[in-house]
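#dry-run=false #mode=assembly
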Amino acid sequence: MEYFLQQLINGLSLGAIYGLIAIGYTMVYGIIGMINFAHGEVYMIGAFVSMITFLVLTMLGGIWLPAALLIALIMAMVFTCIWGWTVERLAYRPLRGSFRLAPLISAIGMSIFLQNLVQVLQGARVKPMQPLISGGFELMEHDGFTVTLSYLQIFIIILTIVLMTVFTLIINKTSLGRAQRATEQDRTMAALIGVNVDRTISTTFVMGAALAAVAGLMVTLYYGVIDFYIGFLAGMKAFTAAVLGGIGSLPGAMLGGLLIGLIEAFWSGYFTIEYKDVAVFSILVLVLVFRPTGLLGKPEIEKV
Amino acid sequence: MTLLDVEHLTMRFGGLVAIDDLSFAAAEKEVTAIIGPNGAGKTTVFNCLTGFYKPTVGRVTLNHPTGPMYLERMEGFRIPQKGGVARTFQNIRLFSQMTVLENLIVAQHNVLMKASGMSIGGLLGLPSYRNAEKEAVELAKYWLDKVNLTDRADWDAGNLPYGAQRRLEIARAMCIEPILLCLDEPAAGLNPRESAQLNELLLNIRDKHNIGILLIEHDMSVVMGISDHIVVLDYGRKISDGTPEHVRNDPVVIRAYLGEEEDEELPPEVAQDFPESVQKGKGA
Amino acid sequence: MSVNNQKNDMLALLKDAGIAGLIAAALALPLAGFKTFDVNGTLTAEPRFHWVLVAAIVTFVGRFTISIGQRTFFSSFSKAAGSSAGSIGAFIKKNQTTLAILLLTAAIIFPFSPMANRHSLDLAVYVLIYVMLGWGLNIVVGLAGLLDLGYVAFYAVGAYSYALLATNFDLSFWICLPMAGIFAASFGVILGFPVLRLRGDYLAIVTLGFGEIIRVVLLNWYSLTGGPDGISSIPKPTFFGMAVFSRNAQDGLPPFHELMNIEYSTLNKFIFYYFLILILALVTNFFTLRIRKLPVGRAWEALREDEIACRSLGINPTNTKLTAFAIGAMFAGFAGSFFATRQGFISPESFTFIESAIILAIVVLGGMGSQVGVVIAAIVLVLGPELIRELQEFRMLAFGGAMVLIMVWRPRGLLAFREPTLKLDGQDKKGDGT
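#status=ok
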């Protein structure tokens, strides 16, 4: 029971991170119908920017922790957004309306490029960082097993809830959100009634990148080790989360993320840790076979 | 004799009812036209008939020489394969990087596939396959000649001018040797001379090849010129059904096309942009 | 066209380049502007802002030069550049028969030329493996238009099937080779069947995941695959039962060199491998050239162009795609068998995503669907970094960047051209040129 509870807490924190990345996939897929393979790398860049910000802050003498967190959060979001914007501008925008495979190949090329760019710039070795936030609440103790809810986990979950609320409001209430939904439905028509389609698509990438940056920050704090390769697996899992929740659906992405996080935590807790990625991947295939629209997705009507 | 029998066909997308309890029949060796204002659900009917959508309710019976077939139950690609129902698309769908001739050969896939012994005989270069391919080329040549594309047979289909692409799509559909040909706005974007040629081609197909034609079309010169039977749709419902003469004089149809008196008036800020004549003739 | 106008134009260009430079600086600031490294277990960052400056200046100058070039010197710069790649494609197309004969002759003469030594033969074998993989993947990506990002998984399945069959059951290379191919193809079918009926881009991500999963399973299924230690002492192939590699007779048969009455030389082994992979690759090529002209091959290309039109013509899309996917996997399986027998040792390390990416880059650079293009691309992409060792570190960086640039520039591939599978009047002519 205690063990179960602990895995539940761990799974939810992990799932929140996946959910934030998954939103980037789902938003981009919704608006231009394309899998942004480089999104995992954008998240990896977010993690690196956060780590470097923390290091620079320490170098400057260190400051009050909440301020440091806030600065790192802002830095990670700003710089990762610029990366997200540039990726779209260079690798995807010129390919709109091109040969069907072209944007996908371009995206995979971008992913390889970014991964290796970071490897060349920062080295291939893993980057271990001193834990910044430690400690937590001890919820219960039984037979020497303590269930803890760390401050970091609380931070992750609260931040995720805040961001989800803000993003849902943006998409449902603002003119930007309306433009996004219009572009999603019919790009030509949206352009005809005066929506700046290029800018709307760019904004979508930037928003996805911002959330991925937050996920990057969280993972840096949570695991304390990052390397240039983390984007690959996290991207796979987040994409699975997006498909599981129903691609194109924002709450679906978060729900999918939480489920994937839970599955991974319980699988590692009760079965073999080596095969946790295999388990997640099998879910992807099973969902695609039995419920391609995901849990909250709308059925896709083929335009003939 | 009826070739195609559509009964109580209904198609819903979520809350939207695209086709509402539609029944009609199409006969052998006749041109049946489906007309109606934009958004009346015409293409959706086609998509239901040719297996791209599964109708929510209804039955579509094809009276195939081998016995009746229920199209709504068949997997999409089997409808042309087993049922012999061919179609063209509103937005032309050619294999644009392949040549004109190749487009017509691909259409004979199932015949050639059998002849090639599921590719194994073909890989070994058996003569039976070579003969089958020769025959396929002969059929393609016949249709190239019909649609006047013989001299451009080795062009990439994507490089053809618009009108020629439309004709090629019809030729390609005919290469599966169908018993029912469904044409989705074949005259769209054609000039009057090309439309007239199209009329001739379709009548020729109907008479010489003894097949039924189902036609969606906005160009009334085509519809009235060649249809034996017209079905009029509005908002997914059938509002009229009969000979061209009957439909032309049906008050319900006239109202659907030209609108009620009060609908006629445009808002003033829009009206000033249009000359009088356009306002009167709108929608037709 | 007044001077004033030109001045404004120039200012606009400068501004545009300035913005690009600023963006580059912003991109570089966090990632290149600081170097992170370990000092006694503590991670520290050290500024190196000059890198940021370099990035900004290079981008500024580059952007400015390109726009100036576009506007003033040759107004259709990009068009000219596009057609120059097009003209390489056209050149290959026009001379493909000559080119193919030349390449083939060179390939046959090479092992007997003075250039042949252990090292060069080894490199040639290495390149040929990629040529074969490129041709195999070309069936899937180039012809059928299915983006397979886990092609290396089938290569791995082939290699491990061969290794396991040969070491556990003591079967000969010539029996294991087809079996490995069949195994790989079955994996293709099992994976493809559920996924190929879905939207095309799902296939990409599922194959990407599958590639990784195969590697994870190979790493952890210790009892079968030996985990990270891999499988070693994989038997060598024989030539109709004769040992090619030993000086002495084996199983009562004379060794190859005695029978052929040639002097035993260790080089023979390398030449043997070279011809083995050359033949396997050529089989792949001839198979592709032939099947392109069969209904199934034409249906692949038609599916690549328009799946909906295919369905309206009665082509079963799932089965047709599945054949392409499985046949592609089969050739990867063959290549894997060869790899296993040549190395004598395999481990999961040889089958990472990077391999899939290299093979895909070969196909994309070579021009999707173009057979000669794949050979040229494989030579450039595999041999290049091998010859210039300093480039190794930047190899994947360059591949990724090149894939993006090629797609933006020529979405069908750099050297892409397509030969019709039949022509109206020349249909009896044999077109086995490529």
